[in-house]
Amino acid sequence: MKVLKFITLLTVFLLTVNLTNAQDTSNTKDTKEVKAVMKAYKDAIQNLTTEGTFELFTPDAIIFEQGKLEGTYKEYISHHLGPELGHFKSFIFSDYEIQATVNSSYAYTTENYIYTIVLKGNKTKDTKERTIKSKGVATSILQKIDGKWKIIHSHTSFKKLKI
């Protein structure tokens, strides 16, 4: 509960600072670096791997998905995303847009996208290959630590689209 309160206060603080300073940061070096971190994560997921992603997150980064606390990034990978990737034939992002705002040593991002997942069929379970298409949104908070941007909080949600 304390972590959730801290994250909520941090988010409100960042939004307040951003509105107060209202400036276009889309071309700053830090903004480009923040977007590069988010792209590296997105690219790994599209390649159906978590390899190289742990360095993008702090060890205590908190992950939320669909309004549920998943725990730290390590916990999320071990009990959720990692095993899930093994069931995917492909995971493709499209219509991807990202906004990033940097304030001092903190940044926040908002990503909007459509993703298409092709699930592998399973002869043992008598399931056929199927496709899931969803519209997703993600918000993340990053902190610059020792000169590198790291994700400290991420929240994703989605709604399935009819295909």
TrEMBL record:
Keywords: Signal. Residues 1-22 form the signal peptide. It comes from the Bacteria. Residues 34-158 form the SnoaL-like domain. The keyword Signal applies. Pfam families: SnoaL_3 (PF13474). This is SnoaL-like domain-containing protein. The lineage of its organism: Bacteria, Pseudomonadati, Bacteroidota, Flavobacteriia, Flavobacteriales.
